Structure formats: C-alpha cells, structure tokens
Amino acid sequence: MRRTFCLAFLLVCCGVSPAITVIHLGPGQKSEPITGDPVKFKRGGQEGYVGMRGGFYVVRGQEDWRAAWPGGAEAAPFPTNLDPSRSMLVLGIAESKETSALHIDKIVETATMVAVWLRDTHTGEGCTNKPERPPFDAVVTPRIDKPVKFFVAEERAESCGEAPAVTVSCRVNDAAAWAPRVTGQPGDTVDCEMSAASRSKFAITDSALTLSELPAGSTAKLAYSKAPVRGAFSLDVFGTYNVHGEATDDSGRKTTGIAVVEALPQKSRDVTVQLVWTNFDVSDDPDTFPRVKLRASEPGATPKAASRPCSVDEANPALCEVKTRSAFTYMKLKASTKRLPLEVLYTDERIEKGPLVCVQLYFDGARTGEVCDREHRSADARWAIGTLDMETGKLLDPGAIADAGAPDAAPEVGAGKAGKKR
C-alpha cells in the first residue's frame, strides 16, 4: 500500500502522466473485451477546446493541457472549472478531415488502466458538407492516475446519394432528333436543352446552360428560350462548339454535361478555305476589323499567260465559290490536281497587337491546316500564305515552291486564344 501511495504522490506532484495508448478500429471491428467499473463523466461547455491539435488526451494538470495545443506555451487558459486534484479531462480532437463527428460513448476503469471508447464518424458517401472546425468531444471524470487506452471506432455516416444527373442534347435546324453530338454548317441554327435529375435526398437548386467553348474566331452567343436550361445559337465558323450544362443540388454538389456541335464542310475532294479573326475581345464588333480579301490564283496555261485569281470580287466560277459573313470569308476551291497560291490582301492597316487573321483549310470533311498572320500590316499590304496542294488540302512549304513567292510573314500553326479573346 505504501509503495502505491508513493507512486501516486510522485505522479501528482512531479507532473509525470501515465501512458496513453490509442487503438483505431475499422468499420465493424470490435475492441478487445474489457471488464471493469463504469466511470461517471459529464460534459460541460465545449467552446474552450476550440483550436486544440488533433489527437486524444487526458489532462490532469498544466503540462498535459499545454501538450494538447499547437503552440504549447501559448495554450488557452487552463479550464477554471477543472480541479486537477480531484478531476481530469478526457478529450478527443479529430485527426482526419473526413471526420464529421467525434463522440465519447463509455469509460471503464480496471485494476490496471482506464479504457475509453469513442465513435469517429466519417462523412457519408457523396456528402460534401464539411465541419468548419475539427470535431471534438471533451468530458470531465474523477481523477484516476492509471494508464489510459482509447478505442476509436470508425463508422460512416449515412450516404448522401449520388450527385445530380445532367444531360445536354442539341438539334440542328429544328431536326426531329436530339443528340449529345450533332454536326452542321455555318449559318445553321442549333437548339440545345439540358435536363437535370436529383439522385439523392437533396433537391436541385440551380441549373444553367452555357456555350463553354467556341472555335477560334467565333462570336456565337446563346439566346435563351427557356432560361436558363434551353437556348439556341447560330454556327458562324467551322470548328467545334461545346455546350455545357451544370446543375447544383442543395448540398452544393455540381454535375456537368456537355454536348458537342461540330461544324465541318461536307466530305468531298473540294478544298474549303476559311478566313477568320482571332485575338479579339468577345465584346468587339467584327464589322469594325480591318478590311481584307482572301484570294486564290490559278496559274496561267503558259509561263507568259496571266494567272486567273478568284476572290469575293473577282469571279472565277471554274475555280471557286466565295461567300462572306460579316468579317469572315468562306472559299470552296473545286477539286483538281492543281497547286494554287493563296494570299490575303489588306485594305486597311492591322496593328501588331490587334485582331489577327487566321486561314484554315478543310479537305474531305476534316481540317488539314491553319496559319495565322501576326505581323503589323500597312494598308494595301499583301500576306502570301503559301501554295495549296489541291490533292491533299495542305499547304506546301512556301520555300520549296519558287513561283509561289516567299511569304511576308512566316505562318504560325494553331494560333490560340488569350483570356476572353477569340
């Protein structure tokens, strides 16, 4: 008895705390069987424990209290309602970001130790709401100077179900069939609609349909007919348009769906040349861009014969068809085995950082090339693009064709967008 009393005296007076062991139990896993006397405990106000570091603690004095705080010496004031000579504080602070609740269920004292059982409840499957601070639980018990063993049983909260289901479908020119992938031509009208359905206990609170991606040079805008889940737009250039639908449920979960609209020339041996503008703000009016003219030339039958050009104001029906829409030009060169020089003629000056011209080539229903002119151009300047091989729909190396002439500006492949520019 005397030896036991001396040990207890040393533990209290010298600040030496009995050992603490933490055993984590997976879902459904049972702890070792322990028989002992139930320990009464009570919960008080919990605000004084906000900010403690994650872990499991038994506080019997100032040293134990400081050890539970990230700053140690900068710990919050010792609880005024805790008398270390009579009571001790048993607490747990969540260590995982997945923990949504932590609760002390039972405490038992045996001849050699104190056993504490806690429930560590993790966020349910599909749930997004997280606690603003790490969950914790703290109780006060009579002081017991014995080793403490924590049994932390992990469990999963009720599932929140799956995020909303979202689909986006489109049709071209009021066609009967709606589909997530459709094709059309510049000038066609595309009607798109999204649907969203809840797959959980949370209702859908917001739905929106947007044009999330446009091809270079496009100024297409979605006009809503059933805001904000149905709208229509016109295809204005060749390329890929992505229509994006997003739904949000009451838990804050978002789901997206995408429909793809492909504007491509019909498959043929003709070559389609498209002149578009890029590197401009979406609020800019294309009709204010510098005036330019796309021109293809058919070499004369003999070295001395003059070439026969084709452009919007130089008709050559045997060679091509040309149409314009706002600042864009569409040229269809009829199938042949020829090699045709292409060029762009500037009527107005183009400043170096202003909107720039890109020329795209399509052959047999697919894009075969793109070049862009980033150079400053004076009024009446000429950009020699290169020579078009009509058998492949591709530009030949300008330097390899003597009669094509060296281009004023080296072609750049795949000029892209910057910020909110097209």
Protein model, in words:
The radius of gyration is 37 Å and the shape is elongated. 31% of the residues are buried. The strands form six sheets. A five-stranded mixed sheet has the order 1-8-6-5-2, with no helix packed on it. A five-stranded antiparallel sheet has the order 20-21-17-23-24, with no helix packed on it. With 422 residues, it is mainly beta. The chain is built from two helices and 26 strands. The protein folds into three domains: 155 residues, no CATH class; 103 residues, Immunoglobulin-like (Sandwich); 134 residues, Immunoglobulin-like. β20 and β21 form a beta hairpin. The N terminus and C terminus are likely disordered.
Keywords:
422 residues; mainly beta; Immunoglobulin-like; five-stranded mixed β-sheet; five-stranded antiparallel β-sheet; disordered N terminus; disordered C terminus
How would you concisely characterize the structure shown here?
By secondary structure, the protein is mainly beta. The chain has helices at residues 2-14, 62-67, and strands spanning 20-25, 37-38, 55-59, 87-93, 99-109, 114-122, 136-142, 148-156, 161-172, 181-184, 189-200, 204-213, 223-226, 230-234, 239-249, 254-263, 271-278, 292-298, 308-310, 320-325, 328-333, 339-346, 356-363, 366-373, 382-389, 394-396. The model is unreliable at 1-14 and 399-420 (pLDDT under 50).
